[in-house]
Design goal:
Helices cover 33% and strands 25% of the residues. It is α+β, with helices and mostly antiparallel strands and 288 residues long. A hairpin with a 2-residue loop joins strand 8 (153-155) and strand 9 (158-159). Helix 9 packs antiparallel against helix 10 (241-254) and helix 10 crosses helix 11 (265-285). It is globular and about 60 Å long. The mean pLDDT is 91.
Length: 288
């Protein structure tokens, strides 16, 4: 069936906001279209105006300035995987991008679109939460915001973004050398599947003592989350079997998984405990 909608392909930010003036409530932004096109075909959305962001070339970059890494919202998964900056400075982000979908999807899917879609299973969210990333936005009349990622998600497919606001880039503070990271995604068939559960974490270690911890989870709550209770169990403690068990108790206090075709809530709770312990061991000792 033919989908009737207007189409706008701005070449810069000013053209974008001029083009959507007076159209709030009718606009759907798109980039890689890996989520938008299936929704259009399923008639899940019917926007009056489709805005193609791919012409905004300034929003496709990966660069490091001083101790901050900036990733443009239109950066694809393939670009993340192949970036020497990301591989060296934020390997858990490269790991998540490498496991998102198939090669065709990775060539199209963008980091900004993955976050803006706000799926509880958004692959990019857990590593970026563990890396304490910040969302940068643009709006009409030059207005923009900086939003810590842990304040960005409101619920399934809901964020704090306004209808006339777009993500322009994501910034990541470069971790100091003592920080070690780990990322694990678990799907029913393979990494390309939508995750049943995922864990990303960063640990600042001094010998066997965890000085600081940043732990994030995906597919285990209505939104991707930081596991603050788990972080408290890890910080200023030696990582022992007893501490790991306390972490599994804490993670079950923080998550609220659902039952769906990929697994029951109880199954997800069991998987979360196993993945969490495995991820901590990987980051701490470099073993599975």
């Amino acid at each position: 069936m033919m989908i009737e909608t207007e189409y706008l392909a701005p070449r810069n930010i000013d053209q974008l906001f001029e083009g959507i003036r007076g159209r709030i409530g009718q606009v759907k932004f798109m980039a890689g279209c890996t989520n938008v096109l299936p929704s259009l075909r399923a008639r899940a959305i019917s926007p009056g105006l489709l805005v193609d962001l791919t012409g905004l070339e300034e929003m496709a970059h990966i660069r490091k300035v001083n101790r901050v890494i900036s990733v443009g919202a239109l950066t694809t998964m393939t670009a993340l995987v192949s970036s020497e900056i990301i591989q060296k400075e934020s390997p858990i982000l490269a790991s998540a991008a490498r496991q998102l979908g198939n090669p065709l999807t990775r060539n199209r899917a963008t980091i900004g679109g993955n976050l803006a879609d706000a799926s509880p299973a958004a692959d990019m969210a857990p590593p970026l939460l563990a890396l304490e990333a910040t969302i940068h936005t643009a709006g009409p009349e030059g207005k923009g915001r900086e939003i810590p990622l842990d304040r960005f998600f409101l619920g399934p497919n809901k964020t704090v973004l306004g209808e006339d606001e777009i993500i322009t880039r994501i910034t990541i503070p470069k971790p100091e050398d003592p920080w070690k990271g780990s990322h694990i995604k678990f799907g029913l068939r393979n990494a390309m599947a939508i995750s049943v559960a995922s864990v990303a974490l960063m640990l600042e270690m001094k010998e066997n003592v965890c000085r600081k911890a940043r732990v994030a989870l995906g597919s285990l709550s209505p939104t991707p989350i930081r596991a603050y209770l788990v972080e408290k169990e890890l910080e200023d403690r030696e990582i022992t079997d007893e501490v790991l068990e306390r972490c599994t108790v804490a993670v079950n206090q923080e998550i609220s998984p659902i039952s769906d075709i990929r697994g029951s809530a109880d199954y997800r709770r069991q998987v979360a405990a196993v993945l969490l312990k495995r991820a901590i061991r990987q980051a701490h000792m470099g073993r599975k």
